[in-house]
């Protein structure tokens, strides 16, 4: 009965364009694989296109049509051209955007020290990249998605931002705070998007899926010991995307926080860890 309900609710998206950014990541590939169970037109975007081409070939017999597209999301011009490509090639606007762009590299503010002496400064290039991908790229995709939906009279469009509990709490270790602040910025900008859509009289839905620790290459780079922490499989994230997309037309899941059982929203240092 549950599967029948999901399949029926997903019918509204049949033959419509679903954009998935950073589709080459483990979370992105899981989302594309889950969406491919339905007759959708999936635009799978990544800077490294080889992985999504392989995924597309693997899912060739699925119900969906998958369009692998190369795009550097840190370049505004490439994002704008991506939406033009969708319009020109597929001949439709974007009905659903799943903003999965993310990097969680560690980067200290003051720099690296040895024996109480700083041997290198904090890397502004790292900070800039974190904000370019985690904040500016996502916000630009939100803007272009809205323009596409408006142009093609897609009144029931849906924008899903894959965020993190780091946008709602303070991470405990040095080197995590720039990432932390980028996710906090995304939290406020997602609500800002809802605010502007409200003033525009738009019924486009906006959902933020706020993840705890995920067993993937991106999130695993934050934290002292990837193997020692609770983490969920990327497939769980893909399931939550379907949950958001299958709500009734008059309901939107605004915030969906997903944790492993036993995990906390506020991150704490493991016992007996001395923070230097």
UniProtKB/TrEMBL annotation:
The organism's place on the tree of life at top rank: Eukaryota
Matching PROSITE patterns: ADH_SHORT (PS00061)
Species: Aphis craccivora (Cowpea aphid)
Upper lineage: Eukaryota, Metazoa, Ecdysozoa, Arthropoda, Hexapoda
GO MF terms, alphabetically ordered: oxidoreductase activity
Keyword DNA repair: no
A Pfam family that the UniProt record links to this protein: adh_short
PANTHER family found in the cross-reference section: DEHYDROGENASE/REDUCTASE SDR FAMILY MEMBER 11, DEHYDROGENASE_REDUCTASE SDR FAMILY MEMBER 11
UniProt protein name: Dehydrogenase/reductase SDR family member 11-like
Record keywords, A-Z: Oxidoreductase
Family matches, as SUPFAM superfamilies: NAD(P)-binding Rossmann-fold domains (SSF51735)
Family recorded in the similarity comment: Belongs to the short-chain dehydrogenases/reductases (SDR) family.
Oxidoreductase recorded as keyword: yes
Gene3D superfamilies with a match to the protein in the record: NAD(P)-binding Rossmann-like Domain
InterPro entries, per database record: NAD(P)-bd_dom_sf (IPR036291), Sc_DH/Rdtase_CS (IPR020904), SDR_fam (IPR002347)
């Amino acid at each position: 009965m549950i599967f029948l309900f999901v399949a029926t609710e997903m019918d509204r998206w049949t033959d419509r364009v679903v954009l998935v950014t950073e589709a080459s990541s483990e979370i992105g590939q899981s989302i594309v694989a889950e969406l491919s169970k339905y007759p959708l037109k999936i635009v799978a975007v990544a800077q490294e296109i080889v992985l999504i081409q392989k995924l597309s070939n693997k899912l060739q017999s699925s119900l969906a049509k998958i369009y692998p597209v190369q795009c550097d999301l840190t370049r505004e011009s490439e994002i704008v051209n991506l939406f033009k490509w969708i319009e020109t090639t597929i001949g439709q606007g974007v009905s659903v955007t799943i903003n999965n762009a993310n990097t969680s590299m560690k980067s200290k503010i003051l720099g690296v020290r040895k024996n109480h002496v700083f041997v290198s400064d904090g890397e502004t290039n790292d900070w800039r990249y974190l904000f370019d991908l985690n904040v500016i790229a996502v916000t630009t995709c939100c803007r272009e998605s809205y323009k596409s939906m408006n142009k093609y009279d897609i009144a029931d469009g849906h924008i899903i931002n894959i965020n993190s509990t780091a946008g709602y709490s303070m991470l405990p270790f040095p080197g995590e705070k720039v990432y932390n602040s980028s996710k906090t910025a995304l939290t406020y900008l997602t609500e800002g998007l809802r605010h502007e859509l409200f003033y525009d009289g738009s019924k486009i839905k906006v959902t933020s899926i706020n993840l705890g620790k995920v067993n993937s290459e991106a999130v695993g780079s934050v934290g002292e010991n990837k193997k020692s922490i609770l983490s969920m499989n990327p497939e769980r994230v893909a399931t939550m995307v379907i949950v958001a997309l299958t709500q009734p037309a008059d309901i939107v899941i605004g915030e969906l926080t997903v944790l492993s059982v036993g995990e906390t929203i506020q991150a704490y240092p493991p016992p007996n860890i001395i923070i230097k």
